[in-house]
Known about the structure:
Elements: H1 6-21, H2 26-34, H3 43-67, H4 70-94, H5 105-131
Amino acid sequence: MRFRSHYLLYLVLAVTDAWLLSHPNLIGRVGIWLYKYAYIKNFPRALVFVLVLVGLGILASELVKKYLPVRTGVLVLALMLVISSMIFLNVFIQFSSGTYQFTGKGFIWGAHLLPSILILIFAQSLYELFRTGKLDR
């Protein structure tokens, strides 16, 4: 796996997302305590959580591009992209109503940013598979 410059973008977005998730307002802190979301209780835990998810997304997309045939890889990456989009839609609906809408704008933006990063990862990988030109064979 060679270094690509968009990995720096993923790293910056992941650190930003971890910071946003670890800084909710008072209502968000009560919700984190009540629902036992220990993985985003403070910045180091949130950073590990977000970096693991982003790393797994990158690893999965790289493994699909390397070991699966191109047509199967396109289908798998498209499925991952659809699942990430559905997660984003679920987060959008969940944070638009109920008590989640009062958890602070930064926390809400952080909750939206994590599925957006995964969408970006899978869309970039899908684009790279289409650019190879091997799909026509």
